[in-house]
Amino acid sequence: MSETLKLIRTYSKPFVNYVKNFNCNEAEFQFDDELNLNSKGFYCKSKVGQPNFGDYRYTLLNSPVPIEPILMDYMKQLDDQGDIPTEAGEQESWISTYFFRFISETNIIQIGGYFTEYVDGEEISQTIDINDEETDEETMNILTKLHENGINWFETDFHGSGDSGWIEDQGKTNLGNLKLSSKAPAMDDLMYRMLENVAPGWEINEGSHGNFSYDFARQKLTLNITLVEDSEEEEVFASHKIFE
Length: 244
What we know:
By secondary structure, the chain is α+β, with helices and mostly antiparallel strands. It folds into 2 domains: 3-117 and 231-241, no CATH class; 119-230, no CATH class. Helix content is 25%, strand content 41%. The chain is built from 5 helices and 12 strands. The protein has helices at 3-20, 68-80, 137-148, 180-183, 185-198; strands at residues 26-31, 42-46, 57-61, 87-88, 93-103, 108-129, 153-161, 164-167, 171-173, 176-178, 209-215, 220-241. Strands 1, 2, 3, 4, 5, 6, 7, 8, 9, 10, 11 and 12 form a 12-stranded antiparallel β-sheet that branches. Helix 1 (3-20) crosses helix 2 (68-80). The longest helix is centred in the N-terminal third of the chain and has 18 residues, at 3-20.
C-alpha cells in the first residue's frame, strides 16, 4: 500500500463521519481529464430529498478535512503507473471525468471514470406520396421509365456521424444495384428534406441511421430511422476498503 493511500485512510474516518451527517450514500470527488479537481469540495449522493439527477439528490459540499490535494496526488500516481485509462466501455469511449468515491455503507473506496456511449433508441417510420411533395415532372418521368423497365422497388441506407451525414449513392433494386441520385437528383434532395423534417439533428454526434425505400408502383417513399441516444456510463478501475 502506498504512503499516499495510507494518508487518505487517515483522513477517511473524520471525512466519512462528516458525510453521514448529510445522509450521503456516496461522497465523490471529480477530476478533469488532466486529473485536476473539477470543483472545490465533493458531491454528496443521497437518497434523501428531491432527486436532481437520476434517482439521487446531488449536493456539492465542502470537505471537513484538507483531503483534496492528497487525492489529486494519488490519482496522478496511479496515472504514472498506467492505472488510469483514457478510454472505457465497449465503444472505447473517451473518459471525460474521473472520480474518487467513498461508499461508507459498504466500506469501499472506488476510483473510476465517466464516459458517454451511443446506443440505438427510438425507431421511426414514415411514408409519403411523392406526388404530394410537388415532385417535378422530369423526375416523375424518370421514375416511370425505370418502372417500365422492370424496377419495382429501390432501397438505400443512410448514416449520421461526426456532426455530418450522408445517404448512400448506390442502392438496391429487384434488378440489382442502382445509383438513383445520378438519374433523379431531386429524389436525393427529397430524402434529405424528409430526414430533416422527421428527425432534425439526425447527423449530430454519432448520428442516427436507417434506410429509405421507394415503391415505384405506389409512388411511395418510406423512411425508416433509428435514433441514436447518448448514455452516460461509468467504469471502476480500482477499489479498496476504507477501513481494514
